[in-house]
Here is the input.
Amino acid sequence: MKRIVAILFCAVVLAGCSRELQSSDYELWGVDVSKHQKRVDWEVVAEENRPDFVFLKATEGTLITDPSYARHAKALDEAGILWGAYHFFGHRTSGKAQARNFIRTAKLKKGNLFPVLDIERHRFMKDPRRSVREAKAFCREIRRYYGVNPIIYCSTKFYEHYLQEDFPADEYTLWIADYTKNPFHLDWVFWQHTDSHSLAGIRGGVDRNVFAGDLAELKKLTL
Here is the structure.
């Protein structure tokens, strides 16, 4: 699965098309939401333009939980939409403690997508080496509990500058945010290509993501 992007790109070139693959070239897509999406009607979303997957924000740091998480999770189960949960990394606290906050809040079950660690540049990121160390501790605790490595979400530049050595694509599933171009050179599996997608049932803009594979490959990333 990790080589799907490269294979697709080569296929396009061999077909006589030298353009870079666009988000519209990928069949499977999804959105990610948090409390910032004030109004979401998942029934309308499912009826009008049903996504193949959804990621929900569950937690942040060691104590913060997203107040919309449980409501979204229940609605997605009722709509039969595949979903998973993500944790927003805090740079000042223990990675292990953050993982425990996620585990007790997310309550992921069989059939949910793998957990996600969302790690981004932040004003509290004073020591990048410490941040990477605690992110690894988060991953170890997630792996101990769920038996899988979490999906790693970050931007192209953040991955290249801070994570590439410690979170290689052959060990971790990458979800890369890049709104300017396809970062296929990073061997991503999920690509967040915009934060301003318009979707019936969701008020305001929402992040849109594509998946580099088919439905069978996507289901391999479920618990």
